[in-house]
């Protein structure tokens, strides 16, 4: 005789539902929720509607399921920001900054931008000020390109509309077709580059921090003035960055990162 799963207390249904949606690699439908949580149709739709109205989930582009929304992403960013209080991660970020000799950042996506949630400043007197909390558009930042490259075509399409590709510096890519080529290259090689695209006179590289399932959780990046570092020289630090991203994933997520993330 098959044992039935214990009933979910009413006051935990929203939490369990949100957990289910965030853990899924594909959009979750009302039918999925009804079956997995043993909920009647009106209850499932009411819970989904509540989470959608409050911004914790949103409808996928295909209209048939739900994915995490902006409030859930901000909540996740807040969780990641607690890494500043975790000595092992702080030490890893500081060690990376000292080895590269430049400012290093951890960032997470927030809608159409990335937000820096942790950083270690370079000791050089010449610095580019991008403090914690700074938001930089996805299309012109190294970290943003990593996030864009991780999205499905349907999720990425609204973010590549020409009206959204603001020119921030002379090298900003504002043509959707050209940016799509850049994102395909980013996905293929496993890192993102900013060649004076967000700020004139600054280059940056970013690599993914992924969980065991290969899902992008955050990005690790560094930026430098072109007066001190060319893009070619910046690429010489990629192996070190990938290793550090793996270590951060292991420390913070408590698991080994996915093989795809390890290979970069």
How would you describe this protein?
By secondary structure, the protein is α+β, with helices and mostly antiparallel strands. The chain folds into 2 domains: 10-68, Arc Repressor Mutant, subunit A (Orthogonal Bundle); 72-263, 2-Layer Sandwich (Beta-Lactamase), CATH 3.30.450.40. It is built from 11 helices and 8 strands. It has helices spanning 13-23, 30-37, 41-53, 70-81, 87-100, 142-150, 153-156, 176-189, 231-235, 238-253, 259-263, and strands spanning 57-59, 66-68, 103-110, 113-120, 135-137, 192-195, 202-210, 216-225. The longest helix has 16 residues, at 238-253.
Task: Produce a short descriptive summary.
This protein is α+β, with helices and mostly antiparallel strands and 264 residues long. Helix content is 42%, strand content 18%. The strands form 2 sheets. Strands 5-4-3-8-7-6 form a 6-stranded antiparallel β-sheet, sandwiched between helices.
List keywords for this structure.
264 residues; alpha+beta; Arc Repressor Mutant, subunit A; 2 domains; six-stranded antiparallel β-sheet; 18% strand; globular; disordered N terminus; disordered C terminus
Distance between the termini: 47 Å
User: How does CATH name the architecture of the largest domain?
Assistant: 2-Layer Sandwich
Can you summarize the main beta sheet? 6 strands, antiparallel
Mean pLDDT: 82
Counting structural domains, the number is: 2
Q: Please state how the strands of the largest beta sheet are arranged side by side.
A: 5-4-3-8-7-6
Number of strands: 8
Helix content: 40-55%
